[in-house]
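assembly run, all chains below
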Amino acid sequence: MYITIDERDNRPIYHQVADGIKTLIAAGELRKGSTLPPVRQVAADLGVNQNTVAAAYRELQKEGLIRVRHGSGAKVVSQVLANKDDERAEERLRAVLADLVLSGRTRSEVLTLVNEALTRLARA
Amino acid sequence: MYITIDERDNRPIYHQVADGIKTLIAAGELRKGSTLPPVRQVAADLGVNQNTVAAAYRELQKEGLIRVRHGSGAKVVSQVLANKDDERAEERLRAVLADLVLSGRTRSEVLTLVNEALTRLARA
Amino acid sequence: MYITIDERDNRPIYHQVADGIKTLIAAGELRKGSTLPPVRQVAADLGVNQNTVAAAYRELQKEGLIRVRHGSGAKVVSQVLANKDDERAEERLRAVLADLVLSGRTRSEVLTLVNEALTRLARA
Amino acid sequence: MYITIDERDNRPIYHQVADGIKTLIAAGELRKGSTLPPVRQVAADLGVNQNTVAAAYRELQKEGLIRVRHGSGAKVVSQVLANKDDERAEERLRAVLADLVLSGRTRSEVLTLVNEALTRLARA
DNA sequence: GTGGTCTAGACCACG
DNA sequence: GTGGTCTAGACCACC
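ok done. output:
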């Protein structure tokens, strides 16, 4: 599991964990039916509290990507988000692109970044 | 000021305001030397608390885009972000792209969204 | 045994099993003196862990409905719950009814559901 | 706010709190636009931890009934559950009715309970 | 003032 | 073994 936590990142840790797993699902590294590692293990690996990882799993379950069952762990049940609109992904996309442009990148540099990122996402 | 506040957007309001202004700067509608409208006016226009708009301005000042002076309002002083938080922006880009892919969009659909957004940003 | 396990049901599996058997008892399909099928068989039929079915039997025994004996299987010994947890049941009833109302059902629709359910329970 | 916590109730506390508020919404005591009391106040009133109440609010938000915003509290935004199917309300109804019947109540006694409960729910 | 996040650690529930 | 709940308390973010 290649998830990284960035202290300087404004996003809360549990969000970063969830996003990391979402990326793995989008990239096809975690397919429908795959079992996620135990909460405790992820917590130990990343050096964060178990509750924090549990919050990430809860988040993913809320979005319909995984199914968490009490004694038997978490499993990927879908590769499609349930609430497409709630997250306002397009709006966030615009904001991020504005940031990249404001950091001095040219249009083609931004497009290169986007293409590189998309290439890693199998289903795209 | 063409800024909109979306109730359903999960981002905090002050963030939405700051992002709106950043987009205007990136698009060239607000150039170096331009004066931003008074906090009170923006607050009234958007129907939000003055403190919220003030927080947005503070954020923009922290990023080096504007300069806020007591009595003389806020002015755009740069069109380039001061913070070199490139990695964080790229990380957020990846997360947003993963969300778009997980919401069922194909690679070309995502690229269309990106191009549309970039076209509105003059400097890109 | 007409018990079904619903993956989408939030109740724990052992609870679903116990409730299924309780419904059979309430409906009179399992009468005082009847023998329940062996844990292994139920587990195999439903495709769940034996421990899970055992937990359900334990629950039913705790409520005074069945008697589990090593070697001789489980037998229905009563058609009346031992625990006087009436208030808790009523509280749960209120919560479920609130949910049904909040899901948009009218009073008469709810009453229809209730009547249908009661009709299947012989002793009612 | 007439919410009660029952130690003997099997449901987790945060669930009992959420159910209590749902009942108030279903009964029309909390209408669309109403503001919920602060997390801290509810926590103090009920004698539970703030995190527990926060979990209840999160639950209600997930179900689409309230909208929680950072600095400005929680507000009722809908009187209809967003995820009607996820909760399997009808299945839980059958289980509760079976319990009431098994506790020795006749059909008419159960119907009286149901009617009393529904009478308190305005929208029913 | 409001809610959100995170931690440490205890204890419970499920399979 | 797995995840869930709850607590106490600290600190942060938002309006």
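Residues 86-122 of chain A form one domain.

The mean pLDDT of chain A is 93.

not gonna interpret more than that til we talk
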